[in-house]
Amino acid sequence: MWEYSDKEYIKVFRKMLQWEWYTDSKTKALFLHCLLKANWKDTKWKGMVIKRGQFVTSLSSLSKETGLSVREVRTALAHLKTTNEVTECVTSKFRIITVLFYDEYQSSDKQKDKQATNKRQTNDKQTTTDIRIDKNIQEEQEEQEASPAPPAYENPWDEPDMTDEEAAAGGWT
Questions:
Q1: Residue 54, number of CB atoms within 10 A of its CB
Q2: What's the pTM value of the predicted model, to 2 decimals?
Q3: Count of other CB atoms within 10 angstroms of residue 83
Q4: pLDDT tens-digit readout, 55-67
């Protein structure tokens, strides 16, 4: 039996209320079950890659997991296949069910979300930084205006500069 974390979830859009199978409780239950069971990332199973949006099962397993009879599962699967909600690949030992358009139902825009969040944080930080810089500049200007300029430092060992005429005359007189 699979163990699931509190942090794992699926998205269910309100648009589902308008879905043609929404009033068929058995088909709706099976489809939601398929969304919940589908892999959220590619996984290896017995030397095969089960892709995102797919899962391995059997009619009897689906029957046990959903509380539907095997016949009800078969009928609900047929409904879902006719409207291109799922496809299945059947072998003698198992079937792989693929939720078509899984990425549309369960967008994997974590990277986009992360980029958007990072961009928002960067913009927020930039704004905060700009405000701090502006405040610091303003405080420095106010301090300079409030305090008199310090007297120019004169080094007593510095010799005064020669004028152009003195330099032309060959140095100091």
A1: 25
A2: 0.60
A3: 13
A4: 999 999 999 999 9
